Amino acid sequence: MSPQHQAFLSALEQRMPRARLITDPTRTLAYGTDASFYRLVPQIVAYPANEAEVSAILSLAHAHGVAVTFRAAGTSLSGQAVTDSVLVVMADGWTGIEVLDDGMRIRLQPGVIGQHANDALRGVGRKIGPDPASIATAKIGGMAANNSSGMCCGTAQNGYHTLAAMRVMLADGTVLDTADAASVAAFRVSHAELLGQLQTLGNFIRGNAELEAKVRRKYRLKNTTGYGINALIDFIDPVDMLAHLMIGSEGTLGFISSITYHTVPDHPHKASCLVLFAELEDCCRAVTALKDGGAVDAVELVDRRSILAVQGKKGLPGFLYGEQAPNAAALLIETRGADAAELAARCAAVDATVAGFNPSANSGFSTDPVVGETYWAVRKGLFPAVGAVRPVGTTCVIEDVAFPVEKLAEGVLRLTELFDRYRYDEALIFGHALEGNLHFVFAPGFESEAEVKRYSDFMDAVGELVAVEFGGSLKAEHGTGRNVAPFVKLEWGDEAYAVMCELKRLFDPRNLLNPDVIITSNERLHLENLKRMPAADSLVDRCIECGFCEPACPSNGLSLTPRQRIVTWRRIQQLRRDGSDAAQLATLEADYQWAGLDTCAATGMCATRCPVGINTGDLVKKLRGGAKHPALAEKIEANLGTVVGTARAGLGALKLARGILGAEATTALNRVAHRVFPMIPVAPPATPGAAGPLPDAPVGPMSNTVVFATPAPAGNGSAAGAGGAGRGVPPARRLEPVVFFGSCVNRTFAEHEAGANLADSTFSLFAKAGFAPLHLADRKSLCCGQPFESKGATEAADRALARTGAALLSASDNGRIPVYLDNAPCALRLIDAQRAGKLDARLQLHDAVGFLADKVAPRLDIVKRLEQLAVHIPCSTSKAGTGAKLVALAKKCATQVTVPDIACCGFAGDKGFNLPELNANSLRRLKPALPSGCRTGVSASRTCQIGLASHGGIPYRSLEALLDDCSQPAAATVSVS
Description:
Its cofactor is FAD. It comes from Derxia gummosa DSM 723. Residues 532-563 form the 4Fe-4S ferredoxin-type domain. Keywords: FAD, Flavoprotein, Iron, Iron-sulfur, Metal-binding, Oxidoreductase, Transit peptide. This protein is of the alpha/beta class. Among the domains are: 97-265, Uridine Diphospho-n-acetylenolpyruvylglucosamine Reductase, domain 3 (2-Layer Sandwich), CATH 3.30.465; 269-449 and 469-475, 3-Layer(aba) Sandwich (Vanillyl-alcohol Oxidase, Chain A, domain 3); 707-857, no CATH class; 858-969, Rossmann fold (3-Layer(aba) Sandwich), CATH 3.40.50. The chain contains 38 helices and 29 strands. The chain has a 7-stranded antiparallel beta sheet with strand order 15-12-14-13-17-18-16, with helices on both faces. The protein has a 5-stranded antiparallel beta sheet with strand order 5-6-10-8-9. Strands 19, 20, 21, 22 and 23 form a 5-stranded mixed beta sheet that branches. α30 links the parallel β22 (819-821) and β23 (845-847). It is globular.
């Protein structure tokens, strides 16, 4: 660390908690990446929690002469979110959302994920204007700082044009809140000189007819090259100029601490189609006509190479598979309407327009959300599609340019010629055709000077083509960053560039805010600090470090994220190969054990967000190696019934201790014991007592498809109200058999403190719906093998799986009778094993959520007994594809259902007991996300429920207990024989 950075850090430690200042080499290395192809390792990473701490950072940065870069999600594509100085990250404390004027406006802090803003607006049929492909990961701070747009918002609905108000902190620490008249009035006095100079710059542009025309012309296109100097002529009031200049300024002029957007309609009726053209010229002429017609919301162009790249994807129209014409291109079109009639009219208008341009095939519009999501998922996956197949060692670059839409076809052809000239054969072109906005993706290598020279020559050629010859934008929506900073003057010319340089001088005279981004004197900046992507492991070598995985990771904020685990492992492997820095290698290896391996939940939820499906958990499991005590694991597997009995006894002792010492004292003593002896598990506050015995049921297999059975006893302990709704079951009914597999976790932990077994509620539901549960003969000693597999004890896991499979086959009469799997993680383990050929294919395996939704609920009358209900979708339920069914069932039981965006709760099997900080970290935002009137939650995994209840402050119940309390047999239920 440099002397001035050390002095800065020492001073900042007096103003911020040391825990939120990162300087260790492992985590600073991990933060040295964003989604771009640059790597700069910060000397200090700071996590300010409020404006006062940001002000302290800026004040001390000026005092010590150190540069500061602000960062939100780190999904930036042009190098604007990395630095070798001080990186200021917007995380906890910056996630405020306030819906205003019945949803017509929304006030957001910079740490809010874009999708969360739209989630808050969904109930009022509105959304924010910007809609980048990264919206499920990108945060508002970065979206505003880059003037992000996207596939549907065009220019009319981007952050610049939908800005309602802004709270911004300048480099000198002054805060301006444009929504506060007193703040504005004070600022007009304190910063009269700055505001006057902005007016002078506006007058300069207006006084130069040629320059003014150029500015207006270029901002009719999407354009994020340089500063948004259109603000100087779009507004008269310099306060408005200032606020709009901050949009797209990439943290180089000030810090946006809050932004208020005018929202836009989010029409519920949508339809998408794919249209293929044999000739690119026809395709682009159709785009121009569609733009003029105004009946479309989004039109995405996909070139021939892109079509070929996605042919392995399922769900596309047949005409996109196979060989394509040499100049083929396709359009992905979406249109929306306020109602079905308007949507139908718009679809008809689009079809009529497209028909006039010789399409070779048209899928026709589909209103099926699944079809639409498939189409758009393929389009969004084009960037990583190149990253996934690139040679190991190369990186993945995405550039985005804009041509005048009438020159779109020529622009595509000329770009393709450049790819051929510079031998980037893997390159794809696609983009937002209505705006003339094209993205192109290719995979250069930066391992040799020759490769860097090839990239440099290519970028020079692109600059001349787009900016000079066509008068377009070198950066349409991804921000200038480092990659295009050396080309800003080329695109804008001397006069406009001089205005931009003056803006930088006015706002940041010491050049400490994200220096070299947007404005630079270094003509080779785009060729420096290029990111190397050395081979690390075949499981993760395809990673392009986009960061899409990070919101789904429970260790995000505690240790490392999946992206950071890969970055660090790549560096470790590189150092092992070249031996260049033994000291750094030793440090990284030592830190990686806890930060990289121990704190990874390994649930694989990162893969569900990764565009190419990388499961960093697989790498972690591989690096963890096999079980530490395989013989012990096998002994436990062989004596599982005894082990479960011992665990139940331990829960009984816990209950006794709570009764004598009190719950809080018992938890405190437990945590002290865990710190001294880490092998002692921690019982979270909501840990229930031991489950009661399984209720009686026949033992399979059954000889008939229909049986008579006595109704199971009603469940106990309703959080919705004692007694439930209509628990009574007719005294004799024709019941269908279903094999009940009770997991070891549900045989151990009670449904709640009263000691009920989950099977009580399950059997009650079965009886109401006309099903008779069947037990396995050796049910007390069976396990799916998940606990052993997660510990690397593969032999014990395989043995447990085999024994369970044999028992299920016997109880189900060789697969004739369906099997109900009562715990989501166990269900996924068994279903995946069957898909892999490890269990008999005849078994009819059903996870609990799917069976209850498809088989049980249709036979029940369900009453909404709750006003508010929180839903957590376990990792395994998400991966099984039944998360939507869980939410749908919850909505049958409650008037308002809330689903906090927690992809993984971090309990992860037994980690909630042995590494409680992981569960606490993942659920730190749960309680604030719950509505004030919410008193009950529901999930489909017993351990998840324990963690959720402990950190959410409300009881989380099983889906079975919830449905049992809210249901009675349907009057029209017909027994099946």
